[in-house]
Amino acid sequence: MFPAHESNQHSEKPGGTDPEKASQPQVSVLIWAHRQPDRWLETFQSACALDNVKTVDFVVHPDDSSPLKKFVNDKSSISKSTSLSESCKKIIDEGAEQVLVIIWPVVLTKDALRYASEWLWNDPRIGTVSFLSNAAGYLSFPYRNTEHPVGPNGQNEVTLTKLFRSKLSNPSPVPIPVCEGAAVLISRSALVVSGDLSHDSSHHPQFVLAEFSLRASKRGFNNFLDTTTFVNRPWDLIGHEPTILSNPDARHALYMKHHFFPGLHDYERNVHNSVLGVALDNARIKQNGLRILVDASELGPQQMGTQVVTLSMSLALAQHESVQSVIVAVPDPQNLPVYAEALRMTEKVSVIASDNLNFSNAPHVDIIHRPYQPSRQIPWDRWRQISKRIVITIQDVIGYRNGSYFRNWEDWHSYRWTFRDQIEKTDGIFCISRDVTEAVRQERLPIDSSRVFVVPNGVDHLSTNSVTEIPGELIDRGLASAPFILILGTTYAHKNRDLGVRVWQKLVSKGRRISLVMAGANVPFGTNRLEEAIAVSDHRDVVVLPDVKEKERNWLLQQASLVLYPTSAEGFGLVPFEAAQMNCPCLHVSFGPLKEFLGNSNLPGSYDLDELAAAAERLLDDGAARRQNIARVMATKDKLSWKAHADTAVEAYLSIMENNAR
Questions:
Q1: DSSP character at residue 122
Q2: Selection from 288, 166, 320, 172 nearest residue 648 by Cα
Q3: Phi and psi, residue 485, nearest 5°
Q4: Does pLDDT of 11 surpass 60?
Q5: With 0-12 CB in 10 A as exposed, 13-18 as middle and 19+ as buried, what is 469?
Q6: What percent of the chain has pLDDT over 70?
Q7: Could you give the strand order of the β-sheet that contains 222-231, starting from the edge strand earlier in sequence?
Q8: Residue limits of the Glycosyltransferase subfamily 4-like N-terminal domain (predicted)?
Q9: Strand 183-187 relative to strand 126-133: parallel, antiparallel, unpaired?
Q10: Contact 493/404 with Cβ under 8 angstroms?
């Protein structure tokens, strides 16, 4: 199942490139211009300009004139015929390997066949390839199942094709049950094995192509869609007719010939999570961007790690070019915490009520993301109703592994069960470090590695210019200007605050005059408060603060001589990064994610008291050691920025969107 990867892995799919076939096929184009042939000039010219085109045969009805004669060149010709089948057979008999049949006026990009032709060339099992278009029945874009006179506003066949092909590492065709659209690429192999196109001249040309693709599929040939190419079908040339596949008489005639039609066609066109539905969603996302709803129901009055991550992530995603909108669901939109007011002033961000996780006023989105632990039951039916995919971040597995943080076994068991249940149902997991990913693997949590992504947090949300405020308790104690060591973190036992106290005591016992400040919220279970109380009972130079405001936290980090961070369990470990941003060194043991991101240069490798105390003395007294400690952390600033987080997250979202929902 594991290890998980940091980027989506692609397997070889039908139509992949065969290195043994280096040459490119020559395509012949058949333009069936049986209506107003004088309005097909743009089609004729764009077909002649196609890469790797051998011939272009412009076929008109025998009763029509040939208005485009003056535009004929050495690769094109004009002929007359009443049989689409005979015209196609003539091209095949002349040796064509592939035939692009065009039955309505279209405009093509020069490289329109770049992938489709290659797929047919490398895989003889492919019978037909269709293309996205503004008017292509169930392959219509951007309005699914709705043909439209033009493509999306501000876009044409060139810009959309370029957009669809951006960031493609391994483009592959999308299977469809029957070909559709004004232009269809057909393989010689399918024609040779399955027989010619229907000879019945009374049939609509789209019916002829659809019937052939169904007949070819019975022989084992596959019909595919090229989602990397947009074919423009203008309605202002010869008008518009609805797709023949929606015509009751045509549907019945196709059913009489092929009993398996229209079952799969109707399923694919109507189900949002079908293979086609997923492909069309991804095409739309490339054009418009991702719509993301962030579960920020934990944005309460206290700002701790979860709140920092949720806020910073939301703001960073809103800046990403591939994100259309970020909806942030908070407990009370009318009373945002002061630290979260930036949400109101950020373009592309809107704030709604979390409404007990029901998100009552939420629009339909692509992704709902819970950026914190899956420890609370999700209303899955509601979330599935308003989103296409659901993502959960695993920050750590500390609570999953440590029962001391719960009142009793029943509460711990409930937490563990809920944790596993949410992971089993989600579409994707973000782990904030490779260390967390390894823990997920060790615990055999129920999710496949293809759905697990390493998306590290950003660390650049603080700076030396951040607003500060001195905690009132320090003023009251007369310690406003006294040097101090800071221990920052909650009272959870794994933070080992009592060990930090003993390190400070050892420094003081050697005659060093320095105070100790401990700041962090109290937790109900799994604390070491008793050990802390015993350790500091005889010391007046110890200040214990409950959780502090953001301004106070900034002041403490800016003014501290040293931050002690003796934690032994973290999913990421934000404190050293926050300290460095405030130009303060931080002492911690090199383990897990801290070692992963910061290495182990000049850091203790164990929790030995003497080793920690010696390292603390060095960071207090040696200016070079202090600068090196800070520089080592700041060197990660670009790699671990919130912009980098958003880039990695968006890449992961897109990979998750390419897979089916669970």
A1: H
A2: 320
A3: -100, 140
A4: no
A5: middle
A6: 93
A7: 76-80, 53-60, 27-32, 98-102, 183-187, 126-133, 222-231, 174-176
A8: 308-460
A9: antiparallel
A10: yes
Q: How long, in residues, is the chain?
A: 662
Residue 485 in 3-state DSSP? strand
Q: How far is CA 217 from CA 266, 342, 564, 643, in A?
A: 17, 56, 68, 47
What's the CA gap between 645 and 458, in Å, rounded?
6
Tell me if residue 638 falls in helix, strand or coil: coil
> Cα(544)–Cα(489) distance, rounded to whole angstroms?
11
Q: Tell me the helices (H) and strands (E) count for the chain, helix number first.
A: 23, 20
| Cα gap 194→238, rounded to integer Å | 32
> Of 3.30.230.10, 3.40.50.300, 3.40.50.2000, 3.90.230.10, which CATH number belongs to 291-454?
3.40.50.2000
The pLDDT assigned to 522 comes to: 75
Are 27-285 and 472-634 in the same CATH fold? Answer: no
Whether 480 contacts 661, CB under 8 Å:
no
Q: Give the Å distances, CA to CA, from 550 to 339, 380, 519, 520, 587.
A: 7, 34, 12, 12, 22
Q: What would the pLDDT profile of 107-152 be if each residue is shown by its tens digit?
A: 999 999 999 999 999 999 999 999 999 999 999 999 889 999 988 8
The token duo for 275 is 């293979």
Say if residue 304's pLDDT is above 80: no
Residue labelled with tokens 């030995």 = 608
What span, in angstroms and rounded, lies between the C-alpha atoms of 379 and 382? 6
Residue 645: both structure tokens together: 């987080």
pLDDT score at 376: 86
Each domain of the chain, given as residue ranges in start order, spans 27-285, 291-454, 472-634
Residue 18, pLDDT > 60, answer no
Whether the ω angle into residue 124 lies within 30 degrees of 0, i.e. cis, is no
Q: Report whether the peptide linkage leading into residue 262 is cis, meaning its omega lies within 30 degrees of zero.
A: yes
Which tens digits make up the pLDDT trace of 345-385? Answer: 999 999 999 999 999 999 999 999 999 988 889 999 999 99
At residue 306, the pLDDT reads 85
* Confidence class for position 21, pLDDT limits 50, 70, 90: very low
Contact yes or no for 59/81 (Cβ under 8 A): yes
- The domain 27-285 having CATH identifier 3.40.50.920: the answer here is no
Contacts of 191-194 with C-beta under 8 Å, sequence gap 24+, read 191/88, 191/89, 191/92, 191/99, 192/92, 193/219, 193/221, 194/127, 194/218, 194/219, 194/221
Query: Terminus-to-terminus CA distance in the chain, angstroms?
Result: 16
Say if residue 570's pLDDT is above 90.
no
Query: Tokens in use for 327?
Result: 């909806």
Tell me if the domain spanning 472-634 has CATH number 3.40.50.300. no
- The string of pLDDT tens digits covering residues 68-114 is 888 888 889 999 999 999 999 999 999 999 999 999 999 999 999 99
| Per-residue pLDDT tens digits for 459-514 | 887 676 778 889 888 888 888 888 999 998 887 888 888 899 999 999 998 989 99
According to DSSP, the residues that pair with 27 across neighbouring strands are 53, 98
Identify which has the larger pLDDT, 318 or 301.
318
| Amino acid identity for residue 403 in this structure | G
Distance CA 583, CA 202 (A): 81
